[in-house]
Amino acid sequence: MTTRMAVAHWLVLFVTVFMVSNARDANGTLPAATLKAIAKANGNGPYIGIVILNLYEVNLLLNSSSDSAVEIIDFTCNNYLILVMTGLSGVIHYGIAGNANPALHVGDVAIPQYWAHTGLWNWQIWARSTRKLGHLRFANYTINVTACASHDNLLNNIWYQPEEVFPVTGTPEGRQHQFWVPVGSAYFAMPKKLEGLKLKTCVNVTTCLNYTPSVSTVKRGVSAGVYLDNVAYRSFIYGKFNASPVDMESTSVALICYQQNTSFIAIRALSDLAGGGSTELNEADTFSYLAADNAVTVVVEFIKQLSSSML
């Protein structure tokens, strides 16, 4: 039996592509024929869902030389509807990300144990908000000021806030406050087996990294609706939260999976040192494809490691 046949025997992959720049609202009510088709597909499960941001990254997976069996379902709905209406028992999210960890490098693949949304703030005046998670004092980043007794300014401080989550396993209408969202514990145990995986070092024959990228598990990653391209804020995020990959979407997937009690993991390849400052000049433009390719390599191997007992 070939590798393809063996994998196909126990695993069918749903690749869900989210085209953010061309998003459309999903209808709350679906035709009976569609619901019937979904029910039939669920009966043939279980399934693992692969959540991908764009066609650029999904094409790398489809063009992979791996012998894994992959079927494509292009859902025009969001991650929540996918989890609610299909028989997914797990979600794998992958792609590229910026890097805030000075110990990691372009091309490395980082797999965090926790994700947080760092874009939910309260200004200092709102006393009812929590102040346990950390804050950013803008005055600490004042430069080129002389003969000034105080660097305080009207922006003052911001305080990071947790998200409100309503888990399906909880009390109806009972909310939880969640800042750090854990990935699936069984999923997170698997990347340790991938740390010796061989990753690409060259974009082409003339453009190569001067080191070999590696796979590593890290403690934390963060997401926000802001493209992080600032050295000072990158250093703050790493120093305050010990975050390694920084992106704009992983935590949104993590929160939905947490709410729906569905196993989740995010595999992010580092395309640049967020804000610049590394020795790889123009690194994001130069090495994004290499990083994305390395992410696909790890995802494919991760899927091969999955056992039917985890589905």
Automatic annotation (TrEMBL):
Pfam families for the chain: PNP_UDP_1
Coiled coil: none
Signal peptide annotation: 1-23
Keywords: Signal
Protein name, UniProt field: Nucleoside phosphorylase domain-containing protein
Provenance organism: Eucalyptus globulus (Tasmanian blue gum)
InterPro entries: Nucleoside_phosphorylase_d, Nucleoside_phosphorylase_sf
Domain named Nucleoside phosphorylase: residues: 224-304
